[in-house]
Design a protein that fits this description.
alpha+beta, Jelly Rolls, 17% strand, binds N-oxalylglycine, binds nickel (II) ion
């Protein structure tokens, strides 16, 4: 059983196991104590593999045996299965706020994910171009900012801890961006030349966006206190930029395996023209139709705990395409480490059972994900 729950998820055991194993892998890579044991292994660049125009995918990427194809019904035949859309302009306008807050509440409660339009993040397109230009550089140049042994940060592949582990069809660069003292600038690309300054601006805008979404979430739940949204304003922001190259056998691989995010919320910018990102809804994978300039926001485990499970962190994955590349920029937003990760007081008591334990930041990040 997952340690931070007083009561179990309403999910199947195997789903809990999958999420937990994934998270365990992340933290084995990040936790300094386990780094020497679990150093992340160097594997080939997927972009380089794809450039060789192979007819077949190497066996390490093949996921035929994962057994989840039976509930993969993408593209969905049910038109009601559409990721909800939230209009930020309506949320900030007093005349339309109540209706939009209600939509936000339903989106968070029923889906745990929504697309945001009219958000005012001005550096989105520019950041997308910088990331595109970075991944277009020759391999040797990109490797100037390669991950160091035992660390997830930098250019490379995520969470490779064993020689036999199946691999995701993706290359990435992972950078901690806020607070500023968390930056490892030696891993921040200087090519393309504007990459660093664009990422600085982008992170700042993501922080504003996350803070305002969290404050609307607390409003939607009738929580008056601003402690939670303030903790996101002073929060931690990690950015993962993904490149999903075209794949000769797309239905046999995954861009990213199914998981739920460990963040407070996650803000994703999609630079593809096909639905590569999918969320699990009532046992079906539903693709996110890319909307140019929109941001995909999903609930992470921290907000799940803080809302006492009213909003849940959805499972999601990325699939790839036979001919098209897809890029995404994913911002993981965490509250300030000084705040406890606990259900909001107003949401427990008076007949509302407390579902999750209260944890310090350190307890949350050091917890043992093992399923017993
Ligand atoms: C992630 C993630 C999906 C995507 O990085 O946690 O879910 O489409 N990415 O890149
Ligand atoms: Ni994710």
């Amino acid at each position: 059983m997952n340690e931070y729950l007083i009561y179990p998820f309403g999910k199947t055991r195997s789903a809990i196991k999958l999420v937990n194993l994934f998270l365990k892998r992340i933290y084995q890579s990040m936790d300094t104590k386990t780094q020497s044991l679990e150093s992340s292994l160097t594997v080939p660049s997927v972009q380089e593999l794809a450039l060789q125009n192979p007819q077949k995918v190497p066996p390490r990427y093949i996921r035929d045996d994962d057994g989840d194809d039976d509930f993969c019904t993408f593209p969905s035949s049910d038109p009601s299965l559409t990721i909800p859309l939230i209009d930020m302009a309506k949320l900030v306008n007093a005349d339309t706020q109540q209706d939009e807050l209600h939509k936000l509440h339903l989106a968070c409660k029923n889906w745990g994910v929504f697309q945001i339009v009219n958000h005012g993040v001005s550096s989105l397109k520019n950041m997308g171009n910088q990331v595109k230009r970075f991944f277009e550089l020759p391999l040797q140049e990109k490797k100037r900012w390669a991950q160091k042994p035992g660390s997830l940060e930098g250019y490379g592949q995520a969470f490779v801890t064993s020689e036999v582990q199946k691999l995701d069809w993706n290359d990435m660069i992972f950078l901690k961006s806020l607070p500023i003292q968390n930056r490892k600038l030696d891993l921040w690309p200087q090519n393309p030349p504007q990459f660093r300054e664009t990422l600085e601006k982008y992170s700042e805008e993501m922080r504003q966006e996350a803070t305002s979404i969290v404050s609307f979430i607390t409003l939607a739940l009738g929580l008056e206190d601003t402690k939670i949204s303030e903790s996101f304003h002073e929060g931690l922001y990690d950015i993962r930029m993904n490149c999903y190259p075209p794949c000769p056998e797309p239905e046999r691989v995954l861009g990213i395996i199914p998981h739920a995010d460990n963040s407070g919320i996650t803000l994703l910018a999609d630079f593809g023209d096909f639905p590569g990102l999918q969320f699990l809804k009532d046992g079906k994978w539903v693709g996110v139709e890319p909307i140019e300039g929109a941001i995909v926001a999903n609930i992470g485990h921290i907000i799940e705990v803080m809302t006492n499970g009213i909003y849940k962190a959805p499972e999601h994955r990325a699939v790839v395409n036979k001919t098209k590349e897809r890029l995404s920029i994913v911002t993981f937003c965490y509250p300030n480490p000084s705040i406890d990760i606990a259900p909001a007081e107003k949401l427990i008591g008076e007949g509302n059972k407390q579902v999750y334990k209260s944890m310090t930041h350190a307890e949350y990040f050091n917890r043992n994900f093992e399923v017993t």
